[in-house]
Amino acid sequence: MMEYILDYLDEKGVYAANQAEQEKLEKGIRLFLLEKGIKEDDNDPYFKKYIASALNLIGTADLKMYLSEYPVISAIMQIVLEWKADGRIPSSRKENLRSCMKELYESGLGDRYIPATEVQMILA
Amino acid sequence: MSEISDSGDFNFSDVGDDVFTSSSGTETGSSGGTEGIVGEGSELGTEIFSGESAFGEVSSEKESVEIPAQQMVENFHIQSMGQIMEMNGKYMSEDDMNRVSAGVNEIRAVEYDPDHNYTGVYSFYNGRSVIEIASIDPEQMERTTIHETNHFMSHNHEVFVPQPDRNGYTVFSTVGTREKSWFVSNETGERSEFTSKGEGMNEGLTTMFTNQQLMEISEEKGIAAERQNIYSHATEICKQLEDIVGEDTLKEAYYGGNLDKLEQQVNALAGEHAYETLRDSLDRTLSRDWSERTISMMEAQRILNEMYKNGGMES
Predict the structure, then answer these.
(1) pLDDT per residue over B223-278, tens digit each?
(2) Which residues of A touch B116 (CB under 8 A)?
(3) What pLDDT, in 10s, does the model give residues B172-206?
(4) In chain B, where the domains are located
(5) Do B288 and A84 touch (CB under 8 A)?
(6) Which residues touch B106 (CB under 8 Å, ≥6 apart)?
(7) Residue A33 has pLDDT above 90, yes or no
(8) Measured between beta carbons, which residues in chain A are less than 8 angstroms from residue B315?
(9) Number of A:B CB contacts under 8 A?
(10) What ranges do the domains of chain A cover?
(11) Environment class of residue A40 by beta-carbon count within 10 Å: exposed (0-12), middle (13-18) or buried (19+)?
């Protein structure tokens, strides 16, 4: 499935500019697949359909950054779900969240791919 | 539309609210006791049901936000009801249609409280329905009101079973695809023995239908809602499920209460007990535990892959 996603990016004209970017992109894709419950060697048509559907939701201009920054997006989701489950989260987690949001804004993704309202509520 | 069997000596008005939550909304069940009027603030004691059986107290002293948030929420609700009726009215049972036609008992916008971990609540208890929307910003209020209105317009059903030998009664409550039960003591009003199943699927479907409605209103709103979804895993799985079993089967389950047909289709395509496993996996996609979410996604994906291979609608 890693190859499938890299081909998908290729088709969209999305490339890593250098080896470091490529490594960061692949690391993000691995986590993306893992959290979607898909193994790297799952190649059945269903999984391709699922991944295409998930990636189609991401704007083409954001694709590379979205996948590269996926570990940050994942960390934000984790904090939001802790807040959702527990009602409150410790201030250290709020700091983690603030730091993740800073990174997302610096990447240019902003709050487009995270539960923005919930993040706003946590950080209020 | 609530079904109340011959009671022993239980008193419904003593029971607090029992909440089904969603993070763009929350879903509960509520007690009688407070006669609310649309547009007016009234006291609402609410307990949040999250996950296994953890009920947390929510203040009953919230101030209702008046104009314009209250009006906005009411307008979003009315528009959404019309839209849902047009898109999905054909799936609803006569009982649900009568309940919905009578309107929600109470809907109100409340001031945003940073101590509360939800943006909206839907409660249904003893035939009484309440929607509460946190007033944060217009986009969120629209999204959340549509979400909670979908909970209201989905299949709502409850049964109270007296248990005189235990001096109490058991409540069985269904909202959409979520089924819950709990025991209530007549003497103390205390609740215990909570069970809940189908929350993940219910929130996934509610979010999917909400996003479809938003997409009809404006593509920009629909896409933003899909991208910023807290229930993204459950919603993505529900979208794939819709492709495989078809829109009618899912909507008959959610709005019409025909879960049997969905269960039969899933089991026919993925094997005995596959539906149960899928439903439970979807419940765990809402977990705060990363490993549990990831494993549950793997389980759900295996089932959907099997269904797809075995002749799902689009395979």
Answers:
(1) 999 999 888 999 999 999 999 999 999 999 999 999 999 999 999 999 999 999 99
(2) 87
(3) 999 999 999 999 999 999 999 999 999 999 999 99
(4) 3-197, 200-309
(5) yes
(6) B34, B36, B37, B38, B42, B44, B128, B129, B130, B131
(7) yes
(8) 45-46
(9) 114
(10) 2-59, 70-123
(11) middle
B217 three-class SS? helix
Q: Calculate how close chain A gets to B87, using CA atoms only, in Å.
A: 23
Q: What is the rounded distance in angstroms from the CA atom of residue B116 to the CA atom of residue A87?
A: 7
Amino acid at B286: L
Beta-carbon separation of B230 and A81 below 8 A: yes
- pLDDT value of position B108: 94
Distance from CA of A14 to the nearest CA of B (A): 20
Q: Which residue of B has its CA nearest to A58?
A: B227
- Please tell me the predicted confidence (pLDDT) of residue B68: 87
- Do residues B178 and B25 make contact, with C-beta atoms less than 8 angstroms apart? no
The whole-model pTM stands at: 0.85
Q: Is B162 left (phi over 0), alpha (psi -120 to 50) or beta?
A: beta
Percent of residues, chain B, with pLDDT higher than 90: 71
Q: How far apart are CA B228 and CA B213, in angstroms?
A: 16
